[in-house]
Amino acid sequence: MKSIKNHLSLVIALLSILFSIQVFFVVDRSIDAYKENLANNYSVIAVSQKRLSNHDILSINKIISNVEELSPDSVIKRLNSNMQSKNVELLKLSLPKFYKITLTSYPSPEEVSRLTADLLRNSSITKVENFSSTHSTTYKLLLLFKNVVAIFALVVIVVTLLLIFKELKIWQYKHNERMSIMGLFGAALWLRSAVLFRLAIVDALIASFLAFGIFIYISSSPWVLQQFSNIGISVVIFNPLEDFAILLGVALLISTLLASLIVIGHKEEV
Amino acid sequence: MDKVIIAKDLSLSYSNSETIINKANFSVDSGSFVFITGASGSGKSTLLKSLFGALKPKQGSLVVGGVELNSVSRSKLNFLRRHIGIVFQDYKLVKEWSIDKNIMLPLIINGYVKSVAQNQVDKLLKHVRLNHQAGKHPLELSGGEQQRVAMARALAHNPILILADEPTGNLDEYSSELIWKLLEGANEQLKTTVIVVTHNIPQTLNVDYKHYHIEYGSIHEVN
Question: What is the ipTM of this complex?
Answer without folding.
Answer: 0.90
